[in-house]
Amino acid sequence: MKYCTELFCHLAGMLLAGLLASCAAHATGSETPVQRYLYQKDGVQIEITAPRADVMRVRVGREHLPEDSSWAVPPNARAPKGTLGVAESGSASVIDSGTLVVRVDHNSLAVTVMDRNGRDLLAGAAGQELRFDGAGFRLRLAMPLDAHYFGLGDKTGPLDRRDGSFTLWNTDHFAYGPASDPLYKSIPFFLGANEKGEAFGFFLDNHWRTNFDFGKAERDTLVVSAEGGPVDYYVMAGPTPRDVVMQYAALTGAPPLAPLWALGFQQSHWSYMSQTEVEGIADRLRADRIPADVLYTDIDYQDRNRPFTINTKAFPDFAGMVAKLRAQGLHLVMITDLHVAKAPDQGYAPYDSGSAADIFVKNRDGSVFSGPVWPGPAVFPDFSRAVARQWWGEQYRDFVKMGVGGFWNDMNEPSVFKVRSKTMPLNVVHRIEEPGFVTRNASHAEMHNVYGMLNSQATYEGLLRLAPDQRPFVLTRASYAGGQRYAATWTGDNLSRWDHLKLSVSMLVNMGLSGFAYIGDDIGGFAGEHPSPELLTRWIEIGAFNPIFRDHYSYGKPAQEVWVDGVEQEAIRRHYIEERYRLMPYIYGLAEESSRSGLPMMRPVFLEYPQVLGDSDDFGGTQDQFMLGPDLLVAPSPTPESQARYDIKLPGEGWFDYWTGRRVEGSKLAETPSLARLPVYVRPGAIIPKQPLVQSTSEPPQGPLTLAVYPGADCRGSLYLDDGVSFGYARGNYLRQGFSCQQSGAELIVSIAARQGSYRPWWSQLNLEVHGMNGKEIAEFKGKRLATRFDKESGSLIIELPDMAGAASVKIRL
Ligand code: GLC
Predict the structure, then answer these.
(1) How many Cα atoms sit within 13 Å of 485 on the Cβ side?
(2) Which of 456, 529, 667, 682 could form a disulfide with 476 if both were Cys (CB 3.0 to 4.6 A apart)?
(3) CA angle, corner 762, sides to 757 and 763, nearest 5?
């Protein structure tokens, strides 16, 4: 229903008493279908549009509306679509997208967003709602008692943002604490959900310094404030948390499919100081049979910390090193910080060519701004100019030619040393020179929060220009909403402490809800004391189930690679890394799903089971848990440093223990921690594709593809595969196959759907591994009995089949 029809008014009238009078009064046909609703009073202008029926955009301006431009939401995603029904009464306008209803009060100018059942999603707090405050504004919103809030990127604190206050101002926060704020990114998006699991989304597209106060300053009032910039926000209808995440992705974009190798194990250190050291790490990984895909070189591979140089004394044959690593199945990711050394007349090409092209950020007097960072005095490309991004992308040419796999954009808040603000002065001048924007100068106060994202955009797009059929891998530290279109990210300079390990779960989960699928933290902790063997082991175990899995640590610490602390610890760590590689078909499938839907790979339990939101403050005991995709639930201890027993609550019954393969009784389990075991459970109804162990994703697996079937309701799974590196999938060179199972009475049918795409599988045999069996079952295929094996320990029936591209089903008589 696109606008206010008689039927809607009748239904709504029963539900929405007050506004409804206005609607009913106009049910005779005076509603006007429009694309854009505009209301003006006392110099204030309010505009309502619907980029989708389930997303409303609200813009408010003084005298005139703000410029309709955005770094986060591309023009086609924010353009009004469809029509809005508008009904006017004496005191309000009611604007209806078909899914959402907005009420604009003509007296107070309060804007209320409701769903079609009349439930307020976003309503002004009592008293004044929107107040302009100098160049900025404050928006005061009601916070229902049962509402919980998530998102805002990887902020510290508990999973739920309620009662917290958060500033969005990209900050290089070395060795932050569990309550430090602000950190490296600004994602002004949150997901609100009530105890029934009904959710909505809110995104303020404003990259000035902003603050989100969820009832800390004013109890039960959510205050969103900004120091400048537009009142330009979007409300997403949900109604499920999953819907909200997908609606947000429809606005700001889904993360493009990463190269497969980026999902392998990554080893990094500030810094491996020489070619010999890097090659030594690679050799040791292979000698110790630690599966791995990526090594990093941090700032010390450079000549005097100058970006886009190589210290040829320490790395005499960089290209040879890259090739050698490739032959060992390893990709190199190099740090390339944005601060260009201010080194005139020294033959330092990035400074010379950047100066000639005049692309550096300026002081107010027109001179180039410089500030100290790793190379000493440095200058900063002005990434809000398309020409500067183009120039930046060019800098990668030689490295790409060498076969370097990916690039790491660090310090891009931007970080500036020796000043209290840790960044550029607010009055330095950026230039917006960009299709879709009015060309003008903008202060750093305006551009700060978006600067890091534009740096990663420049890298991503530059790499695409240099190698158009290769999926770029960019890791960025700073970002803004929409930055998931260009880069993976991590949580910055954490500490080797148990509380940081615990913190990482809520940080990563909230980051995932905020649009970024490719997320990780420094496994083992970046700074601080050397992690204890137990801490590093536990961190590797949990990291094995995070989307990005990177062990990285600072200078001045003893080695933190997998093999430190002796063979016993190494064996446990290896086991978890190996399991990740066995799970790679499932993990890669999640990445591909994310590239289409925006759903995060690592998820809070409530994303799959919104009912847990009603259970209690810690969401039915799931606060410290997370899910990897829809099927795996990881349940670390809420007090990871302690050996005390803890309760694990599962969202329902019939789950399986991932490690034993056996069904667990009930939904409340008592776990006695043991270092070698990280509790992981499988959803009843999951079908998980697994592969034989490999040492890197470059190595074709030898042996069968296994489909691990865990019978239960809604039984399904899928497989996605392609060459892992190119865009061939967009030309049809992929493999996609769906699976399902159905139990009725004494029969379980496992169905395989017909395969799509032209990519050739690496397997010729398919093993069904059906869990929850007793060994007495009989399997049949096309009416003929199949040979089976029963694995007593895991209670699974193993059925070996030839690979099947067409639709097929196997009947198991129980
Ligand atoms: C920053 C980064 C860290 C890196 C270091 C040196 O602190 O966050 O990961 O190792 O700089 O480049």
Answers:
(1) 20
(2) 456
(3) 105
Confidence of residue 17 (pLDDT cuts 50, 70, 90): very low
Q: Would you call 493 a catalytic residue per the annotation?
A: yes
Angstrom distance (rounded) from CA 207 to CA 152: 13
Sign of CA dihedral 158, 163, 167, 168: positive
CB of 159 closer than 8 Å to CB of 604: yes
Atom of ligand 1 nearest to the CA of 415: 1
Residue 26 has pLDDT above 70, yes or no: no
263 DSSP 8-state letter: G
pTM: 0.95
Task: Find the radius of gyration of the CA atoms of the chain.
Answer: 27
Half-sphere exposure of 782 (CA within 13 A, CB side): 3
In angstroms, the CA 429 to CA 407 distance is: 27
The finding on whether 335 has its CB within 6 A of some atom of ligand 1 is yes
Q: Which atom from ligand 1 is nearest to the alpha carbon of 271?
A: 10
Q: Which residue has the tokens 């409530």?
A: 606
Specify whether the CB–CB gap between 748 and 814 falls below 8 A: yes
User: How many Cβ atoms are within 10 Å of 424's Cβ, its own excluded?
Assistant: 24
The Cβ-side half-sphere exposure at 180, using a 13 Å CA radius, reads 22
Q: Which amino acid is at 619?
A: F
Which residue in the block uniquely carries the two structure tokens 């379980």? 748
> Is residue 492 in contact with ligand 1, taking CB distance under 6 Å?
yes
User: Taking 50 as the threshold, does the pLDDT of residue 14 lie above it?
Assistant: no
Tokens of 600: 């995060």
Cα 620 from Cα 160, distance rounded (Å):
13
Ligand 1 atom nearest the C-alpha of 335 is 12
277 is an active site residue: no
Instruction: Check: CB of residue 47 under 8 Å from CB of residue 59.
Output: yes
CB atoms within 10 A of CB 53: 18
Structure confidence at residue 318 (pLDDT): 98
Query: What's the 419 CA to ligand 1 centre distance in angstroms?
Result: 18
Whether 42 sits among the annotated catalytic residues: the reply is: no
Q: In 3D, which of 602, 480, 577 has the Cα closest to residue 523?
A: 577
How many CA atoms lie within 13 Å of 539's alpha carbon, on the beta-carbon side?
33
185-206 tens-digit pLDDT: 999 999 999 999 999 999 999 9
For the sheet with 549-551, list strands across it.
519-520, 488-490, 474-476, 406-409, 331-335, 294-297, 265-267, 549-551, 522-523
Report how far residue 102's alpha carbon sits from residue 94's, in angstroms, rounded to the nearest whole number.
6
Closest-CA residue to 266 (of 624, 552, 565)? 552
Residue 322 vs residues 292, 575, 657, 698: alpha-carbon distances, Å: 15, 28, 41, 15
* Model confidence at 2: pLDDT above 90: no
Closest to 321 measured CA to CA, from 408, 405, 422, 206 = 405
Residues 6+ apart with CB under 8 A from 335: 296, 297, 298, 299, 301, 407, 408, 410
- Site of tokens 């049962």: 146
Residue type, 282: A
Q: At what angle do helices 533-543 and 498-513 cross, to 10 degrees?
A: 10
CA-wise closest residue to 606 among 626, 591, 590: 626
